[in-house]
Amino acid sequence: MTDALDATFSALADPTRRAILAMLLEDDMAVTDVAEPFEMSLAAISKHLVVLASAGLVSQEKRGRVKWCKLEPDALRAASVWMQGFGQMDAVDLDAFEAFLAQELPG
Amino acid sequence: MTDALDATFSALADPTRRAILAMLLEDDMAVTDVAEPFEMSLAAISKHLVVLASAGLVSQEKRGRVKWCKLEPDALRAASVWMQGFGQMDAVDLDAFEAFLAQELPG
DNA sequence: TTGATATTCAACCATTTGGTTGACGTTCCG
DNA sequence: CGGAACGTCAACCAAATGGTTGAATATCAA
Predict the structure, then answer these.
(1) How far in angstroms lies nucleotide C27's C1' from the CA of residue A70?
(2) How confident is residue A85, by pLDDT bands cut at 50, 70 and 90?
(3) Range of weakest confidence among A58-67, A94-103, B65-74
(4) CB contact under 8 A, B105 and A22
(5) CB-based contact A98 B5, cutoff 8 Å
(6) Pairing mode of beta strands B58-63, A29-30
(7) What pLDDT is attached to residue B91?
(8) Is residue B58 helix, strand or coil?
(9) Contact check, Cβ <8 Å, B102/A22
């Protein structure tokens, strides 16, 4: 029942996780290096990365001891489309956007 | 410390709240009418509207007995900008986007 | 005034979330 | 081999979240 948008938005709701995404925007990083600037345990960052990965926002690949974390911007696309629809209320494609939204309506 | 993006994204993380926003996209509505299609108490919907309102995604104006709920698409703009940055990683304005992100990086 | 409608408040509950610490399994290096 | 680095797991904790019910507060209408 957990929608992909649920996972995406709740992953984005935490400032630590958004900061991680911003760091990964510049480069792929090891878990330890992701954790370095934060005043928080490595285990906590590891958990945040699990959340980001299970939302598809980040992929992780283990090479040797090191687990490399990579930003996956495609996963943001659906959520971005969702949001842009609200910003463009007066645009011509409102019907298509509402059809997309209708998938989420109850009943 | 609670960033505006925190509030926006965590408000959007709930499917009931996203559905409410979709309903309000079509028209302003009273709280009771917002609640009608959901299999959930009115009090629960009232709480969801408080969350949406405190994130600035919805405004509420009481006229008589009825509290009218109105979509506020502007509040989505900052979050939308944030997300679009990730989708446009190869765009020229990457520097400006990173400057914006830098506000969220830890000290 | 009496009663129905609209909405919130308060108390409560179960579950999830975001963090900690310490032990653990891997992998590299000397 | 022995130790250090990388990362996760497990148990625990406090606080937040999402829901319930029942009482309370306004407002309209007869």
Answers:
(1) 21
(2) low
(3) A94-103
(4) yes
(5) no
(6) unpaired
(7) 37
(8) strand
(9) yes
Instruction: Tell me which residue of B42, B53, B54, B35 sits closest to A106, measured CA to CA.
Output: B35
Q: Which amino acid is at B11?
A: A
Q: Is the pLDDT of residue A98 over 70?
A: no
Torsion of CA A76, B16, B1, B95, to 10 degrees: 20
The residue behind tokens 């009418």 is: B33
Contact present, A56 and B60 (Cβ < 8 Å): no
pLDDT one-digit tens code per residue, B52-64? 999 999 999 999 9
The residue that minimises its CA distance to C1' of C6 is B65
Distances in whole angstroms, Cα of residue B38 to Cα of each of A66, A106, B12, B17, B68:
47, 6, 17, 11, 18
| A31 neighbors A24 (Cβ within 8 angstroms) | no
The pLDDT value recorded for residue B82 is: 74
Asked if the model's pLDDT at residue B107 lies above 60, the reply is no
B6: the nucleotide nearest its CA (via C1') is D16
From A98, which residue of chain B is nearest by alpha-carbon distance?
Answer: B22
**B47-80 b/e (C-beta count within 10 Å ≥ 16 → b):** ebbebbbebbbbeeeeeeeebebebbbebbeebb
Chain segment A38-53, per-residue pLDDT in tens: 999 999 999 999 999 9
